[in-house]
Amino acid sequence: MQVDTTNDALRHPTLYKASGDLAISAVDGDVTHLYRVHALILAEHSPVFAGMLTLPAAADASVQTYDGAPVVHLPDNAKEVKTLLEVLYTPVHPIFKKERTFARDVYGLMSIATKYQIDSICAAVSTRLKEQWPFTKVEFIRTREDSHRSWVGPIHGVGRRIPEPASAIRLATDFNIPEVLPAAYYDLATHEIISLYSSQVKSMAPQWDLLLPEELLRYYQGKHQLTRQFVRCVNMFSSYHDDECETVFDDFDYDAGEYSDSSACRQALEKARTSWNDQLHPIETGYISLMRADVMHALVGVYDDRRKHKLCRPCEVDLGARCKSAIEALWNDLPAIFSLKGLPFYALTPRGQH
């Protein structure tokens, strides 16, 4: 049975292939879009399509045809169908090269690929998302520090290369990619919801509307826990060890008969502690808030700058060791900080440590 849709259907300029043996129609709004592709390609990638395409020959009068090819009407949005077909014909699709908007832009593709069991596309999306949100400590730190070095502010726009965390959380949660959640939630916690209402930073704000109530609760709880972690890190500069310090012997108070508390190392560490305290903001409720609680970046900064304090060698080594220990502990605690261990699928995949 020949189908005449020439009056209200649009042939796709590149996906209506003359050599194709199957016509696919899908609707977007009030417009029907037509694609002509190769049934073998669909069947090879999708067991669902393979079953659907077990059709009688086109000469059979009971089969709907268009332009001499059998027609399959898909209930999916034409935009998603188009992207799916484009990726099947062009594996290195531009959508996989996107940075900040990748998770948002690929959500529809992941949905339709999952529906039709096209595992190759699902795997490609998962791999790309994991590249953006590392699940090993070393890669996590490296990517965050690269982001900080590239950031020059929302006006200049360099920071737009940083992936957007809320859409990554949505994609990872809905399609069972739990490895990326610690990094994505951590980045989300470095943002304030007030950014939604600031015209200057709105382009860089997370897509808060994509998050469910329980996910926003994880954000608030995690942000509070990170603030507490930040406060505990201040104590690194207070837990001073006189027994190995080489400068404490330079400050012996002969009148008092004891060593002074104002050794060069102690003074340097106290100055660093004060600098950290300046980033804490008391609020009316008695809690302490941080506008950007990027504890990991702060710890890495202390570790990298430890020589600038001009400490004696034992104190410098001690400070570096404490920073590394705190970084390790924070990384290992991220699933607990954001209550991820309670998710039904999270425990299925072990996280890398190195």
Describe what you observe in this structure.
The chain is an alpha/beta fold and 354 residues long. Among the domains are: 1-76, no CATH class; 227-337, no CATH class. Helix content is 44%, strand content 12%. The strands form three sheets. It has a five-stranded mixed sheet with strand order 1-3-2-5-4. A two-stranded antiparallel sheet has the order 6-7. A hairpin with a 5-residue loop joins strand 8 and strand 9 (288-289). Helix 3 packs across helix 4, helix 4 packs antiparallel against helix 5 (119-132) and helix 7 runs antiparallel to helix 8 (181-189). The longest helix has 25 residues, at 313-337. It is elongated, with a radius of gyration of 28 Å.
**Contiguous helical run count:** 12
Strand order of the largest sheet: 1-3-2-5-4
Please report the distance between the alpha carbons of the first and last residues.
Answer: 62 Å
**Silhouette:** elongated
Uncertain segments? 152-160, 282-289, 348-354
User: What is the average per-residue confidence, as pLDDT, rounded to a whole number?
Assistant: 80
Radius of gyration based on Cα positions: 28 Å
State the helical fraction. Answer: 40-55%
Domain BTB: 20-90
Organism: Phanerochaete sordida
Protein name: BTB domain-containing protein
Helices and strands, with pairings:
Layout: E1 9-16, E2 22-28, E3 31-37, H1 39-45, H2 47-52, E4 65-66, E5 69-77, H3 78-89, H4 102-115, H5 119-132, H6 137-150, H7 165-174, H8 181-189, H9 213-234, E6 252-253, E7 258-259, H10 264-277, E8 281-282, E9 288-289, H11 295-304, H12 313-337
Parallel strand pairs: 1-3, 2-5
Antiparallel strand pairs: 2-3, 4-5, 6-7, 8-9
Helix pairs in contact: 3-4, 4-5, 4-7, 7-8, 8-9, 9-12, 11-12
